[in-house]
């Protein structure tokens, strides 16, 4: 029975964690993953102790990590006997996407191959995620269901980044085995899918044929080794009550979403006459029926989503976190189209719309969002995107047309209407949140005047005539005492 203990060293080695125990095999494939913070500028040493459960031997080898995302490091464990090696440890690493969603899934099998001589089969599933180099890494094993060819495995929860690292089209390979006590599990077959396919939920599209290529090559009439169908697929986002959530409501300070909202909103609200702002949320299940929405009123009133001032918007945001369940995927296009419908009805230059989107960087409808922005570029509106959290915002940078004008289906946007900034670039190192917010507001609003003027000039809309100068009354005012 083998397991590995991982030691991490910054100034000294300490035990970081350990894998699960795997028995009856000399080629264990461990499921548990370790998440480490990587710093390019620092040397970070790792030590792997490969152990028997009863501690009959402890084998280790110190190594230094090279770079995150593409390393494949081989560790040869020394047996203590000169000239003799006792095995190889293969370690693979990949930079993690910032996707914080988890998914609850359940599968069932139908008419799987019979593998046990005196019974049926004891089937279980092994899920593998594809890596950047085309190899596969195990990411989940189901429990074993005894003596059946039609198993129903228990529902399980897995982080999306463990399953596909936030890449919805990355291949997921699923192998089906018949469990044997001695560890020599019989291979029944396999199938491939992706997160995007699985997200379609229970349907005829998510019934997979289990194929055993060796068996298929020997039998001309071979169809499959049974089927596996998808029963449940529920997406769950990080709970805002947890300190790890970007929406966490700390009683002592604003979270990143609230700071971005307050910083930008308090400046831009001065240019709105009635200070009534429609506030929308996206990516949540709404009460009472759990309907998923990407365009819902934060104040819970779809007929009147307006909030009084930025303080009203913030209050609606806080209240919505208590009533909705954050839920993926994350779609931008519905809220952009929502504002575009209002902007399309105003052509005389009397109104100009500014949409503020605050996001953690995960986006599921990139193609639709690009198309929405291209369509909106001819309307009196601008889009501000503030990225919060530690994610790499490559998708958001792509939407900002500063360097390359955004396009969709071969059609380029008439003008650049998107301004993106990552909030982390404006966080003051001394902890002065007021200064952080001031810096953010200054940069994020810098392009709005030029975007406003470019729209007005291209349409030949000129400023309204100035009101006549004030003329004092010709006669002194009478007062009554």
Automatic annotation (TrEMBL):
It comes from Echeneis naucrates (Live sharksucker). The keyword Signal applies. CDD domains: C2B_Copine. One of its GO terms (molecular function) is metal ion binding. One of its GO terms (cellular component) is plasma membrane. It comes from the Eukaryota. PANTHER family: COPINE, COPINE-8. The keyword Metal-binding applies. Residues 460-481 are annotated as: Disordered. One of its GO terms (biological process) is cellular response to calcium ion. InterPro entries: C2_dom, C2_domain_sf, C2B_Copine, Copine, Copine_C, VWF_A, vWFA_dom_sf. Residues 464-475 have a biased composition (Pro residues). This is Copine 8. Residues 67-208 form the C2 domain. Keywords: Calcium, Metal-binding, Repeat, Signal. Residues 1-19 form the signal peptide. It holds the Pfam family C2. Belongs to the copine family.
């Amino acid at each position: 029975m083998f397991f590995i203990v991982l030691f991490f060293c910054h100034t000294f080695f300490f035990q970081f964690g350990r894998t699960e125990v795997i028995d009856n095999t000399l080629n264990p494939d461990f499921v548990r993953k370790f998440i480490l913070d990587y710093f390019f500028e620092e040397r970070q040493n790792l030590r792997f102790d490969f152990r028997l459960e009863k501690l009959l031997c402890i084998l280790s080898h110190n190594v230094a990590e090279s770079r995150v995302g593409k390393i494949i490091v081989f560790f040869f464990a020394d047996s203590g006997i000169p000239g003799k090696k006792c095995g190889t440890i293969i370690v693979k690493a990949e930079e993690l996407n910032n996707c914080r969603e988890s998914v609850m899934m359940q599968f069932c099998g139908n008419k799987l191959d019979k593998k046990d001589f005196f019974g049926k089969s004891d089937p279980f599933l092994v899920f593998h995620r594809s890596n950047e180099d085309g190899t596969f890494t195990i990411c989940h094993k189901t429990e074993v269901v005894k003596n059946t060819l039609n198993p129903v495995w228990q529902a399980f929860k897995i982080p999306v980044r463990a399953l596909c690292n936030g890449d919805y089209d990355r291949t997921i390979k699923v192998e089906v085995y018949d469990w044997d006590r001695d560890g020599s599990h019989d291979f029944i077959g396999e199938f491939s899918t992706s997160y995007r396919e699985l997200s379609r939920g229970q349907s005829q599209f998510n019934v997979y044929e289990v194929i055993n290529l060796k068996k298929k090559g020997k039998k001309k009439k071979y169809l499959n080794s049974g089927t596996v169908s998808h029963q449940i697929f529920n997406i769950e986002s990080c709970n805002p009550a947890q300190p790890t959530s970007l929406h966490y409501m700390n009683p002592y300070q604003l979270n990143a979403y609230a700071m971005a909202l307050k910083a930008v909103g308090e400046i831009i609200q001065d240019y709105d006459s009635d200070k009534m702002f429609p506030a929308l949320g996206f990516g949540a299940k709404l009460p009472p029926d759990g309907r998923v929405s990407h365009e819902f009123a934060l104040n819970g009133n779809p007929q009147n989503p307006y909030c009084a001032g930025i303080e009203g918007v913030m209050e609606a945001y806080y209240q919505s976190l208590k009533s909705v369940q954050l839920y993926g995927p994350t779609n931008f296009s519905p809220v952009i189209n929502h504002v575009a419908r209002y902007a399309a009805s105003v052509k005389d230059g009397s109104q100009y719309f500014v949409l503020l989107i605050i996001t953690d960087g995960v986006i599921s409808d990139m193609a639709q969002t690009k198309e929405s922005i291209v369509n909106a570029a001819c309307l009196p509106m601008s889009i501000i995107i503030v990225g919060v959290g530690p994610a790499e915002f490559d998708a958001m940078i792509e939407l900002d047309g500063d360097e390359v004008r955004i396009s969709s289906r071969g059609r380029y946007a008439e003008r650049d209407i998107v301004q993106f900034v990552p909030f982390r670039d404006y966080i003051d190192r001394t902890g002065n949140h007021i200064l952080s917010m001031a810096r953010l507001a200054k940069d994020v609003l810098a392009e709005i005047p030029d975007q406003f003027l470019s729209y007005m000039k291209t349409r030949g809309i000129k400023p309204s005539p100035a009101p006549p100068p004030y003329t004092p009354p010709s006669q002194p005012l009478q007062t009554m005492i």
